[in-house]
Each structure stands twice: as C-alpha cells, then as structure tokens.
Amino acid sequence: MLKGIHLTLMIGPAKPAPVPRAVLEALTAAEVTTDADGPCGFQLRFTLSNRSPLQTMFLIGGGVMPSIIRVVLVATVNSRPEVLLDGVMTDHQVTPGENGRSELVVTGEDLTRVMDYQTFTGLPYPAMPSAARVAVILAKYLAFGITPTIVPAFLSDVESPVSNTPLHQGTDLAYIKQLASQVGHTFYIEPGPAPLTSRAYWGPLVKAGAPQPALNINMDTHTNCDSLRFQIDNDSRVQPYITVHEPTTKLPIPVLIPTDLSMLNPPLGTVPLVAKTWKPIEDASKLTVTKALLRGLAAASRSNDGVQAEGQLDVARYGRVLKARQLVGVRGAGTAFDGLYFVKKVSHSIQRGQYKQSFTLTRNALVSHVAKVPA
Questions:
Q1: Which of 13, 66, 193, 356 has its CA 20 to 30 A from that of 223?
Q2: Number of domains in the chain
Q3: What pTM was estimated for this model as a whole?
Q4: Which candidate, 131, 160, 373, places its Cα nearest to that of 268?
Q5: Average pLDDT per consecutive 10 residues, the chain (375 residues; last block may be shorter)
Q6: Pseudo-torsion of CA 169, 174, 177, 179, nearest 10°?
Q7: Are residues 306 and 210 in the same domain?
Q8: 125 and 192 assigned to the same domain
Q9: Among 223, 240, 203, 213, which residue's Cα sits nearest to residue 312?
Q10: Please, are residues 102 and 96 in contact by the beta-carbon 8 Å criterion?
C-alpha cells in the first residue's frame, strides 16, 4: 500500500480473525460504498492460485460452508485506524485465468444483512412505542458487537393493547425501517470505532456536529480534491402538508409541515431553496392528530436537498478517510457553494499503490452560514 496507509483484513464465521499475510497480499482491489440512505456494500478482488488459503476461507471445502462469513476491513491512515466495513459475504465468483491463477470476487453487505434473513411476522408488542420495539429487536444482535443508539420519536402515539396491539411485520430489518419511515427517522449500522464493534442507530438523520477537514478546490498547493462539481436542483424539493377540517364550517385547511426542522434537516446556508411543489400527506384525515403529524414530519425529513456536490479525492493527499453521515467543509468553490455540507455518500476504491474516494455532498441552502470551516 501507500506510505502512511495500512490495511487490515479479518475474515471468519461470527468472530473473524486477521487473515494470513498471503491472503492480504492476494488482495488486488477493494470497493466499499457507504450511503446515508442505504446499507454499506463491498466487493473484494483476490488473485487465486490452486494452493491459496482462500480456497478454504471463502470457497466450499468438503461440502461444508459456514452460513455466515463475516468480513472486516480496517484502513489505518497516518496512524489513524478507520473501520471501513464490517459485514457478511453474500456472493462470490471465480474467473479462471492463465497459468493456474484465477480471480476471486467477494461481494457483501454490512451487518444489516444479518437482520434480513428471518421473518418474525405476527410477534406482538403490546403497549410498546416504536423506540421500545426497536430496542427489543436489536437485542438479538448483541453477539455481533452491535450496540444500539435509539432516539425516541418527537411525538409518540401508543395505542391501548385492548384496542390494538402492534405486530411485527416481515424481517427485523424491514420492520425497523418501516417504524423509522413512519416518524421521519433513519436506521443504519455503522462499523467501529474498534474492529468487531458497530453502532446501530435509529433516530433522525443528524446533520450537525464537528465538521471534517475541508475539501479544497482551486487553491493551488492546498487543493486536496481531484475533482468537485456542483448542481442546484430546486425542482426536487417538495413541500408536504396535511389537511385539517375547521370544526364549524368543515372547510379543509392545508397545514404546511416545515421541511427545515433543526432536529431533522437544519439549514446549512443562509439562502434557502424554496419548494415549488406542494404534496399532501395521503390518508391524513383517517389518522389521529399525533399520527398525522408524525406522518408529516416523516415526509418533511425526506424532502430532498436542492444543492448537491460530487467529487473525488486522493486519501494520501487529504490525509485521512472522509466519512459519510458527517459534515465537511468546502473551500475555494465560490461564495454560493463554500461552507458546510452533509456527506451523503462515500465510495472507497483501494488498489495497490492507490486509495481514492468518490463522494456526494448535499445541503439545503446557498451561501455559507459560517465564517470559517476547519482546514
């Protein structure tokens, strides 16, 4: 690898162990993608010889193969370790090559995949709010080193077990995501901070906190981005609303749901983009007031950010790993686009002698609302 960058690969069932040196040297490329709106996926490429230990590590040996093969990849950049992935293998392919050397391609997803194998439809949760149900579900996965972080919904509507008892629907992953979408929350499993540990987060998508070092463009020797381009898409923003009926006249009155709530989608600029389209919350009139408001907040949280930036950087030049679901500063792009952004998506591309990251940044306003960003 590059000077100052070291990779650690761990493979095995349930509790993986560091691979032998021969296996790490056989790794020719690694691709890891983290998306704020979806699971983390990965693909590892190895050269495969007939005597390679990979023959028994990933491929079927003696007709027996563990049901779950766990994969952990850690990148240490300038003595700073970052767990890039902690997941399970979902597929492997072998392409025969010349001189008895083939290529093994291992594909997988993060530990949310483990939550999507078994269905538990019909399991009752009497008098339990959404957050309590999520806690019960995540308790099953403590053996994988997953620690839950659960933020209760802004509003809670707990029904009497006499009138209605919530029932589990589908797999654990599907049901947790369903509960999150109903109240404007998100759910993901983030690897780290230490290998074999992860954090399962159920709560609002937080767009606050200490920013990562700035991405610089058009700044001569201080430039650390290979490319960076911006796009304004105001047509994608939607203003959700619910309709209430005036008690006396029964006239319908639209009530707008704010899309830039501080806890869900705080402003990251001084000139906000105004939504051109209003969209009603379907079937809101059939819901209780609390459920209607929760449905509205959920729709508001999904309102797309109108400012987007895409680019690529060299990790060796940036000096650290850019992480998704955090803020980052941008400098040198001009008055309209400088400032803080939310890192929505990051893709790692690692090859021998090269470590690149492509990324997608978003925010909901133009012109920076901070005087400085961390360098």
A1: 193
A2: 3
A3: 0.86
A4: 373
A5: 81 87 91 90 88 63 62 93 94 79 90 94 90 95 95 70 81 95 88 95 88 94 93 77 72 71 72 77 65 67 79 94 96 94 96 94 90 88
A6: 0
A7: yes
A8: yes
A9: 223
A10: yes
